[in-house]
């Protein structure tokens, strides 16, 4: 089957590409940057385009059987998502898997949750065989904290102590590829989660164990987090993420046993564990130091 992966040069999409190639799909990846095509796995076709351009949206979905849709967090996130939904509709795409976020319908006030809730509604109102994936916070976010962990002995993500059921991106990618290639999950929405909840403090403790050195949780002070983050992120993103961390600190982002059971049935294996992910990363960082 012919699949177009939107976001295929990024964290989740690149793993979706791998999983689709392993399942013998004919994979196409949209990118705004033609240079990125050279980094795609062999046999994968790079297509230049931008979801904000109508010409792209009119052209790239033609002859595709399936679409994996992801839109990065930005002030135009919902617009890009709706452009893609329309492109896929106009081209008569049969199957579409949309990457949303857990609790998109609960924390609708958060800009990047509400943006996804709107796109979810458009996906559901279309005639695709759709599957919506709602992942929790990614384990792989911690790659961004390598310097904080290794140089300063600090874990900086202000997740609070209610708990998050963080997930491995490789589980998300497998779920997407299974839904796209089998069509067996049409009309379903899945939370994608890890096997047990973690907190800011327990995450720092896990990193301490796998790195073999003390790692302190930086704490829940969102003013301090905002001041630090404005040095490397746009203000609109910092504003959005601060609201999200406040939500996490107050309510958490927790899965139930039913979520874990459904995901295990979907993937054919239990969710990957955070400690295993952290151990792998620690070994990779050690080997490259
Ligand atoms: N991080 C988390 O914990 C978490 C948890 C739940 C949900 N999510 C959701 O996951 C998504 C982010 O996924 P990610 O981390 O894989 O993203 P990412 O690594 O930042 O990659 C973004 C991708 O989107 C493509 N892209 C950006 N703007 C585009 C445009 N206008 N037209 C076409 N393609 C465009 C980029 O392609 P080029 O640069 O090659 O053009 C790139 O492939 C967000 O929606 C986020 O809310 C994240």
Q: What is the chain-wise order of helices and strands? A: EHEEHEHEHEHEHEHEHHHH
- The CATH architecture category of the domain at 2-137 and 168-192 and 255-271 equals 3-Layer(aba) Sandwich
Instruction: Estimate the global geometry from the Cα principal axes.
Output: globular
In total, how many beta strands? 9
Tell me the Rg in angstroms.
19 Å
Report the mean per-residue pLDDT as an integer: 97
What's the quick description here?
The protein is globular and about 55 Å long. The strands form two sheets. Strands 3-2-1-4-5-6-8 form a seven-stranded parallel β-sheet, with helices on both faces. The protein contains eleven helices and nine strands.
How is the secondary structure organized here?
Blueprint: E1 2-6, H1 11-22, E2 26-31, E3 45-48, H2 54-59, E4 66-69, H3 77-91, E5 95-99, H4 111-124, E6 129-135, H5 146-152, E7 154-155, H6 169-182, E8 188-192, H7 200-211, E9 216-217, H8 222-229, H9 235-251, H10 257-267, H11 274-287
Parallel strand pairs: 1-2, 1-4, 2-3, 4-5, 5-6, 6-8, 7-9
Residues 6-13, 30-33, 36, 50-52, 70-73, 80, 99, 101, 112, 135, 137-138, 141 line the site of NADP nicotinamide-adenine-dinucleotide phosphate.
From the structure above, extract its key features.
289 residues; alpha/beta; Rossmann fold; 9 strands; 45% helix; globular; binds NADP nicotinamide-adenine-dinucleotide phosphate
Q: How is this structure best described in words?
A:
- This protein has a domain at 2-137 and 168-192 and 255-271: Rossmann fold (3-Layer(aba) Sandwich), CATH 3.40.50.720.
- Strands 3-2-1-4-5-6-8 form a seven-stranded parallel β-sheet, with helices on both faces.
- It has helices at 11-22, 54-59, 77-91, 111-124, 146-152, 169-182, 200-211, 222-229, 235-251, 257-267, 274-287; strands spanning 2-6, 26-31, 45-48, 66-69, 95-99, 129-135, 154-155, 188-192, 216-217.
- β5, α4 (111-124) and β6 (129-135) form a beta-alpha-beta unit.
- The model has no long low-confidence stretch (mean pLDDT 97).
- With 289 residues, it is of the alpha/beta class.
- NADP nicotinamide-adenine-dinucleotide phosphate (NAP) binds at residues 6-13, 30-33, 36, 50-52, 70-73, 80, 99, 101, 112, 135, 137-138, 141.
């Amino acid at each position: 089957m012919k699949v177009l992966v939107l976001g295929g040069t990024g964290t989740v999409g690149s793993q979706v590409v791998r999983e689709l190639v392993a399942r013998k799909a004919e994979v196409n990846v949209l990118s705004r940057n033609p240079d990125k095509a050279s980094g795609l796995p062999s046999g994968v076709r790079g297509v230049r385009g931008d979801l904000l351009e109508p010409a792209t949206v009119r052209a790239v979905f033609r002859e595709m059987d399936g679409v994996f849709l992801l839109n990065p967090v930005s002030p135009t996130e919902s617009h890009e998502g709706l452009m893609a939904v329309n492109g896929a509709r106009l081209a008569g795409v049969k199957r579409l898997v949309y990457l949303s976020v857990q609790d998109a319908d609960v924390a609708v006030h958060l800009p990047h949750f509400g943006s996804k809730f709107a796109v979810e509604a458009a996906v559901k109102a279309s005639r695709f065989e759709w599957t919506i994936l709602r992942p929790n916070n990614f384990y792989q976010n911690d790659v961004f904290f390598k310097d904080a962990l290794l140089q300063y002995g600090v874990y900086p993500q202000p997740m609070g102590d209610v708990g998050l059921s963080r997930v491995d991106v490789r589980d998300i990618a497998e779920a997407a590829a299974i839904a796209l290639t089998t069509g067996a999950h049409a009309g379903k929405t899945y939370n994608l989660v890890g096997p047990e909840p973690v907190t800011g403090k327990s995450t720092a403790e896990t990193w301490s164990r796998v790195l073999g050195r003390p790692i302190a949780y930086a704490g829940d002070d969102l003013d301090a987090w905002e001041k630090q983050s404005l040095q490397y992120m746009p203000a609109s993103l910092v504003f959005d993420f601060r609201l999200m961390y406040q939500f996490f600190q107050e309510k958490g982002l927790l899965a139930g046993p039913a979520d874990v059971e459904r995901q295990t049935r979907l993937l054919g294996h239990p969710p990957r564990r955070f400690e295993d992910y952290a151990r792998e990363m620690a070994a990779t960082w050690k080997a490259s130091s």
